[in-house]
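#lab-general

N.A. 3:47 PM
ok so I finally got the sequence cleaned up, no stray characters, all 186 residues accounted for. can someone with queue access submit it? mine expired

B.Y. 3:52 PM
send it over

N.A. 3:53 PM
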Amino acid sequence: MKRLLTILLASLLVFSVSAKKYKHSLGLGTGMAYGVSYKTMVAQHFTIMADVNYGFSFVGGDMNGVADFFGGAANFAFQGDAAQGQNIDLDWFAGGGTQFGAAGNFSGGKWGFNAVGGIEINFVNAPIAITADFRPGYSLAFFPGGGGDIEYDPIKDEFVEVGGGGGMMLMHMFDASINFGIRYTF
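B.Y. 4:20 PM
back already:
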């Protein structure tokens, strides 16, 4: 029992002294989404990330294929240590949040939820971090003028209504994107 208590206390001590090297970071992203992001550590292993970006997502549901979007996302994530080297620290993170913005070449809007998971490489001797993440999500897309069906028109490069009707059309979007970024940490 004494040995178990000693191991437990040592583990808690190691976990508590593995603090992150930064409190805030600003970044640029690329991949399936291009944009800017801000990340802050709100507790020892918990982060809040906010993004504003333009990009493309693999889309399932009513809009199969690839769709463009412009918008933002806010995510809450747990960030843990994966490995530590002499000059770099490798972290993993997982969480989720909400996404919102314009969809379908600005012909409609979207709002939904997403998960986020990825890795981050922190350079110990430089205020730089490199990230890679995967973001699957579910959104409701809404387009004016419902009542008909919608399809992609490659000539106009947007989704257009086929048939008649008025009102608002709601569509289910199951989307996913793969993103890469570089961050300035401070």
